[in-house]
Amino acid sequence: MHNATRFGTTLNGLLTLCFAGLAVAGLSCAGCASQQTQTSLDGRAAEQDVAGADPFRPPLHPVEGVDSAVFPASHPVQGARARAASARQFSVYGELPRQHSPAFISELPFDATENLQQMTFASEGADFDPCVSPDGKVIYFASTRHRPTADIYAQVIGGTSVTQLTNDAAHDVMPEVSPDGTRIAFASNRNGSWDIYIMNVTGGQAVRVTDDTGHELHPSWSPDGSKLVYCRLSETSDRWEIWVAELDQPASRTFLTFGLFPSWQPGGSKIAFQRSRERGDRLFSLWTVDFVNGQAVSPTEIISSPTAAAVNPSWSADGQFLSFAAVYEPGEGESGERPRFADIWVMKADGTMRTNLTSGSFVNLMPTWGPDGRLFFVSDRSGTDSVWAVPTEQAILAAFPGSATSPEAHEEYVEQPVSGEETTETPH
Question: For residue 220, what is the enclosing H or E element?
Fold first, then answer.
């Protein structure tokens, strides 16, 4: 997705996919991000900074969100708006306020933009949905660099040559490498509806994991590689749900909660995801649940803001930190263009000690961790959406004085869970 470019074809007259894993049924993705001066950590110009109360601090009770109007934004995949979206008309970010007001305030001011490194180099189309191999040598991503529909590619980190792994006329997006580095789970609409597939990391024949008329997206592997968590748009409730599938018994699936874009904690039991509220501005916040004995327990909202959306959660390789994207404003107009700007943030797994890694007049989304502590993300700072990387050592050291030089080596941190109101939820 590059400047002056819009993606707007139809996908069975059902759903809209836009830019950046954020979402949006009912919205089309536009590529003209406005150039705004952003020198503060809350996404506003310095003269507009407000060093008042942190909007994330007030304890917020878990509230069921209505995610039915959302589909993964950031993909050149589109379609008609979802049924619920056509009625409610709210975006993935929610009905974001247009006025300039502080949204996120970092507890630890830090800017790592001087250490950014461009990793992929699409001159046309867009590179998005990055993930990194467990050994840190290869980056996998979806791209429309060669044609309007997205395929999955592999590139040696530090190189420029790309290997095309899928070649289907439909869209193949959201690749996720297995913990042992041998397989890739991804989402595709090659059979009409969106489903989850698995293939070898070298490409080849893909095996279909989900097979129904609903839409399943954004797979994430369990630590032992035996399960996948993913989000599913319910045909009956028009809400996004999170499910877990047993790979040795694909028909055995477990409903966990409502939300989307789940990410399974490496070596742990937590699953992070985003969920919108059912009141006010309907902004996305980040939640976690514990997957225990096949059930989701202790649903906890770990970070939220009344004036910005927190999206795209991703775990560090040791499961001690989370990264996410903060979306401050949507685009202009009613068609739901891409956001004006968005930044990448890092925090403890309990939502504390937040610090941002990017700033400026760019759209930075879809963070994912490498095993060496680097964050890979999608940014339009080169003119087209490409994958960039930034080291997190300085940010982690600033957040945790006396710690080791990377999240993976930081042994002093002991996760302190934030109390949350447990809810009982039933799929519809």
Answer: strand 215-221
Q: What is the pLDDT of residues 286-302, one digit of tens each?
A: 999 999 999 999 999 99
Structural domain harbouring 99: 1-428
What pLDDT is recorded for position 52?
Answer: 27
Is residue 353 helix, strand or coil?
A: coil
Q: For position 112, what pLDDT does the model report?
A: 56
| Strand-strand pairing, 284-292 and 295-303 | antiparallel
- How far is residue 319's CA from residue 330's CA, in Å, rounded to a whole number? 31
For residues 111 and 362, what is the distance between their CA atoms, to the nearest angstrom?
14
Res 244: pLDDT: 97
**What's the rounded Cα separation, in Å, for the pair 372 and 378?**
18
Count of alpha carbons within 13 Å of 335, Cβ hemisphere only? 15
Element at 193 (helix H, strand E): strand 193-200
Could you tell me which of 59, 32, 16, 73 has the C-alpha nearest to residue 327? 73
Query: For residue 230, what is the domain's CATH number?
Result: 2.120.10.30
How many CA within 13 A on the CB side of residue 416?
Answer: 5
- Identify the band that residue 403 occupies on the pLDDT scale cut at 50, 70 and 90: low
What's the burial of 347, exposed, middle or buried (CB within 10 Å: 0-12/13-18/19+)?
buried
| Closest listed residue to residue 101, CA positions, set 343, 306, 283 | 306
Task: Name the strand (E) or helix (H) holding 174.
Answer: strand 172-177
Average pLDDT of the segment spanning 337-366:
87
What total number of domains does the chain contain? 1
pTM recorded for the entire structure: 0.74
